[in-house]
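pls design
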């Protein structure tokens, strides 16, 4: 969701990508951090087919990102005995994370939030690969990665009737030696009718431009029988913690910032660099990456309009409030 820094009134749009349809003023009663989904508004077979279609497109994007950023450089891709049909090439071999949204939008009908999501995911995978390169442990590099949706189900809808599907995604990393490793993450996908245009607004044709636009990729919260989305409000909302921290950095005091950073606090120089970066692009989107979650730590990225790169903020939700750990 886009926010303008320093605003004293936060306008929250209708729940389409996990936000509450209300206006929140400073000093109002505590808001619900999670919004339970409404019962499925349309349980027809057509909606189920659309959910599977969007899940397939999510897999295509995640596979393209893994192929671009996770595989060890200069090592041939391992041939798997049960290798599925090769996915189309969606990204250039040298694509930078900032180029990923537009390149994927040439092939898939993506709204602004999914475009921010894929940039954040690309930035995360690139940083993980950089860490492996620094360690110089070639055995940890996968020689092939496969991504598949293992479970797809329409689990509810937003108050305006937009369907939400739960998609479980398994990512298998195959290594030259030793067993493969599998990680799993759950996603909440929303889609709606949309024009067949790419990130630049140009009309596009193709199998993925069928009049349906992927509008949101989020974590799914709540209980299995009462799934919910992050509202962007309240003390238990990871994204609200990020918005509050950004406001503290750009318009708050050192004490405001320290209260959110917990016991390990950033330096004044670090905060000055962070403020300069955030002030360079006052409009931004916050994205949480389900696959990047580290135990109790939620991994979120701030994607700024017209500012290269992505800012990572880890959020730990504690009894005394959220703790935010910035990572440049």
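designed seq:
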């Amino acid at each position: 969701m886009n926010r303008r820094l320093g605003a004293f009134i936060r306008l929250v749009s209708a729940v389409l990508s996990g936000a509450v349809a209300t206006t929140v003023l400073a000093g109002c009663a505590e808001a619900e951090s999670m919004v339970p989904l409404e019962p499925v508004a349309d349980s027809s077979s057509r909606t189920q087919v659309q959910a599977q279609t969007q899940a397939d497109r999510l897999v295509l994007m995640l596979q393209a990102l893994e192929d671009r950023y996770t595989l060890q450089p200069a090592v041939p891709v391992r041939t798997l005995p049960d290798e599925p049909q090769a996915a189309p090439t969606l990204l250039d071999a040298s694509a930078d994370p900032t180029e990923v949204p537009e390149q994927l939008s040439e092939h898939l009908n993506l709204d602004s939030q999914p475009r921010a999501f894929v940039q954040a995911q690309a930035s995360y995978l690139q940083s993980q690969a950089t860490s492996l390169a620094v360690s110089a442990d070639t055995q940890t590099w996968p020689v092939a990665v496969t991504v598949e949706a293992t479970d797809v189900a329409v689990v509810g809808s937003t108050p305006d009737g937009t369907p939400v599907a739960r998609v479980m995604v398994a990512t298998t990393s195959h290594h030259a030696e030793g067993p493969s490793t599998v990680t799993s993450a759950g996603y909440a996908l929303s889609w709606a009718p949309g024009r067949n245009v790419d990130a630049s607004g140009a009309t596009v044709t193709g199998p993925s431009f069928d009049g349906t636009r992927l509008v949101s990729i989020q974590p799914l919260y709540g209980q299995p029988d009462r799934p919910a989305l992050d509202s962007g409000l309240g003390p238990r909302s990871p994204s609200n913690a990020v918005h509050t921290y950004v406001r503290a950095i750009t318009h708050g005091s050192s004490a405001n910032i320290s209260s959110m950073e917990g016991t390990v606090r950033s330096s004044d120089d670090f905060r000055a660099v962070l403020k300069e970066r955030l002030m360079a692009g006052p409009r931004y989107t916050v994205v949480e990456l389900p696959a990047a979650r580290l135990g109790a730590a939620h991994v979120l990225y701030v994607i700024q309009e017209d500012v290269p790169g992505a800012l990572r903020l880890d959020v730990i939700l504690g009894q005394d409030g959220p703790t935010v750990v910035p990572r440049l």
